[in-house]
Amino acid sequence: MTLINNKKSLALLKLTSCGSCFDVTKDNADDFIKLHHFYNIYDLRNRNKIDKKYDIIILEGHPRTRGEIALAKLARHNAKIVIAIGSCAQMGGVYLQKNESTLNKVIYIDYVIPGCPIDHQEIILCLVDLYWGKRFLLPDLSVCFECQKNGNDCLLEKEQPCLGPITRMGCNSICLNHGEVCLGCRGLKPDANIDKMQDILKQNSSEKDASNLTTIFGKLIK
Ligand code: SF4
Ligand code: SF4
Ligand code: SF4
């Protein structure tokens, strides 16, 4: 049963990516199906052109080729709102090569849903908020906040590197809960203390290891 008569249009578009951010929608199909009450959804992932306007276009992936850069610009031209999903779209992710431009250097992005892959509840909340004309806001605190709330021992105290202090929370510190370090896949939190993080990394790891750690999902520290 359709509860809402005035649906908005929502298109899905893919640049260079592994596809797993959009797969989150398949893995949580029972939740995503409810979005059909709010949106007419158009899957453009196998197309390389956009021939009409949409209220919202969701972009997954990093623009690697000239064709993808042109497609991203076309998406911007044809969407009232552009949402970039995943670290690939946010900051290049694992696909970023030396001297390449990230998506936000190619087009203006209205909203980012961070992570590798994204959290399904975050994208659903974002789309529901935008449907009702509200701004969607990500949490501002660091992964450390969730990590400590979850009772984990701090890796920095054991002189192991961890990017939790500069990374935006929202993943429920999932890596730390399983004994892994935070590699910063959700990108920088606002006002992240980069200098302090660099000092800590210098103490806990070699320059090369620190550089590798902070560039896995895009350049977190320049
Ligand atoms: S952010 Fe991660 S999961 Fe999402 S498309 Fe990129 S590599 Fe895949
Ligand atoms: S282990 Fe990492 S995320 Fe957890 S409190 Fe320490 S620095 Fe922060
Ligand atoms: S703990 Fe860090 S690397 Fe792991 S999911 Fe959260 S932000 Fe990403």
Describe the structure.
With 222 residues, the protein is of the alpha/beta class. The chain contains ten helices and five strands. A five-stranded parallel beta sheet has the order 2-1-3-4-5, sandwiched between helices. Helix 3 links the parallel strand 3 and strand 4. The longest helix is centred in the N-terminal third of the chain and has 13 residues, at 66-78. Bound molecules: iron/sulfur cluster (3 copies). One iron/sulfur cluster binds next to helix 7.
Write the layout of secondary structure elements.
Blueprint: E1 8-14, H1 20-27, H2 29-32, E2 39-43, E3 54-60, H3 66-78, E4 79-85, H4 86-91, H5 103-106, E5 111-113, H6 120-131, H7 143-149, H8 174-177, H9 194-204, H10 207-213
Parallel strand pairs: 1-2, 1-3, 3-4, 4-5
The structure holds iron/sulfur cluster (3 copies).
Question: Which key features would you list for this structure?
Answer:
222 residues, alpha/beta, Rossmann fold, 2 domains, 5-stranded parallel beta sheet, 10 helices, 13% strand, binds iron/sulfur cluster
